[in-house]
Amino acid sequence: MTDWDDIRYFLAIARNGNITAAAKALGVNHSTVSRRIRTLEEKHGVRLFERIQSGYEMTAAASGIYELALEVETKHQHISRHLFGQDSRLQGEINLTMPHDILGYCLIDDVAAFRKKHSEIQLNLFVAKGLKDLAAREADVAIRLTASPPEYLIGKKAASLQHGIYVNEQVQATLTKTKMQVPLILWTNDNAQPLWVEEHFPSSEVALRVDDLYSMYAAVKAGIGIARMPCYMPDSLSSPLSGDTVKRLPIELPVSSWGVWVLSHADLRHTARVRHCRDFFSDSLQQRKDLFEGRNSIYFK
Amino acid sequence: MTDWDDIRYFLAIARNGNITAAAKALGVNHSTVSRRIRTLEEKHGVRLFERIQSGYEMTAAASGIYELALEVETKHQHISRHLFGQDSRLQGEINLTMPHDILGYCLIDDVAAFRKKHSEIQLNLFVAKGLKDLAAREADVAIRLTASPPEYLIGKKAASLQHGIYVNEQVQATLTKTKMQVPLILWTNDNAQPLWVEEHFPSSEVALRVDDLYSMYAAVKAGIGIARMPCYMPDSLSSPLSGDTVKRLPIELPVSSWGVWVLSHADLRHTARVRHCRDFFSDSLQQRKDLFEGRNSIYFK
DNA sequence: AGTCATTCGTGCATTTTTGCACGGAAAGCG
DNA sequence: CGCTTTCCGTGCAAAAATGCACGAATGACT
Lengths: 301, 301
Description:
Two copies of one chain form a homodimer. With 301 residues, chain A is α/β, with parallel strands linked by helices.
C-alpha cells in the first residue's frame, strides 16, 4: 500500500504548480518534494506531472486522482480536528488569527497578558490579509468582523460594530468655509457609490482608494479626505491627549449588523486551551464594547 | 498537519488489537508501530489506546475517529487503484488469487507458462482460504467460482460449472449388493438437506463433513461415502491410467448457474499487465471448458 | 548581449526513522 | 511451581529520508 503521506505531497504540487512553492507550503526542502514525487511515479509506473519550464503540470493521469486527493485531504482535516478536539491540556500551540488593525490598536496588550497567564501555551499569530481556513486548521481561534459567521463555527459576538464618518480638523474647517467638492477616501474594491456618500455627501469626489484600514486612517489624518471607518480604529488612536486632529462627524450612520466575533471550529468546542483562549479574548473585547460601538468617539460640534 | 501515514498505523492497531499483529499487517517491525503511535498521541495530547495486558484497546477518543479513518482508507484504496489503473508497463507485480484446488489440479502449469512468457512480471499467488478484497487491492486478478460477480468487478466467465455425484468403485459395488443407507460426505457449513440428496438418495445418512474440496475427494476415494463435487476436481485426478477408482454416477444434476470467472477491479481495466494476466488465464481455463463442464467424466455404467 | 531571477536536479553530510536483539512482565499450562 | 508463550518497551546499529549547497537550464529584463 502506498504511503498515504505521498498524496499530501502530490496535492501540494498539483495546487502550487511547482516544486519550490509546494515545498514551501509543506514546510520542507524542495529536493524532498522532488524526490518523493519521483519515487511515487516510479512505484506506480505513471507519470503524474510534466516537467515544463515554469514548473510542474498535471498529466491526465494526475487529474484523475486530483478530486479524490482533495476528498482525502478533507477527511484528514476532519480527523485532525477531531483529535485536537479531545486535547485537554493547557499547553501546546494555538493558532490565532485576527485583522492586523485589531491586533495593533486594540488587543496587543491582551495578547501579552494571555502569554503571561498561560506561559505553557505557544500562541502563533496570523494577521496577514486573507481569512484563514478554520476547517483546515490553519487557525484554531479567529477574531473576525462579520455579519454572521458560518454555522460550523462556534463563538460569541463580543460587540456590535459602529461606523462613523471621520475627518481631519483642518479639512473640516476648509469644507465649512469654501463650498468645494468633498474629497472621499473609499475602499479599492468598492466600485459602487456607497450609501453614506449618496445620502450625506451628494456633492463629492473620490480622492483616494485604499485597501487597508490603517492606511485609510493615515489618509484621513493627512488631510486627504473624509472616510467611513469602524469607530474602534480612529477612536483608539485619536485621543484628545495625543493632539490628533481626526474626529468623527456628528452623523448617525445606521447600526451595522456586523460585529466583532471570537470564533473557532465546532470540533474544537471542548479543546481546553482553545476554550480558554476564546473566553479570554471575548472578555478583552467585551471590555472594549464602548470602543467598538462608537461611544468613545469625539465629535465635531 | 499530521503525517497522513499515522492514520494508517492507527487503523492497523485499532483493527488488530495489539502492536505485534498490527506490525505484521503493516509489514514493519513492532517497535516502529509502538513508537509512531506514541508520537501521535503525544503530538495531539490525546490517549488513543489503553495499554492492557493482552494488547492495545481503543479509548473513547480513538473510537471517535475510527469511522473517519475507515473512510480515509477507502479513499486511499480508490486512489491506489486509480493510479494502478494507468500503469501501462508490462512489468512489476501482479497479485493473483484463486482457490487452491484450481491452482494445484488445473492451472499450476499455466502459472509456470505465464512466468516464462512475462519474465518481467512478478506473480504473487494467494491461494489461502478466504476471498481477497479486490477493492483494497489485496489481489489484482482473481479466479473465482461464483454465480454472478459483484458489479464493480470486470472479467469473463471462462466456463460453466457442472457438478456430479462421485463414488469409489468398491463402495458402489457394496451399495448395489446390500440395501444399506447411503453414506454422504457434505460440507461442514451446509446445515440444510441438500437438494440432490433429497431427490436421489432419500435413504441416506451423513458419514462425514468437510470444509475443503480436496479433502472431500480424498474422503470419497478412501471409500467413506459419496459426494457432490464440481466435476473439474475429481475428473482431473481420476484418469483411467492412474488406476483411480473414483467415478461419477450417471445422474444428471441441473446445470449450475455458477461458473469459473477471471476477474479484476473495474479500475484496473486498462492496466496493461493485469489485462494480459486476465486474458492469459481466461484462455487457459477456456481450453479446459470440457473439464469444468463435466465432459471429461468417466461414468459408472 | 549580458545580468538576474526561477526552477529544478544531484552529491554529500546530517538527521531521522527503522530494524534487530534483548529483557521484563503477565498470562497460560502441565 | 516452573516453564513457555505472548506482548511490549528500549538501546544500539543500520538504513532511509532530509536539508544544504551547488550548478545547469531557461526565460525575463535592461
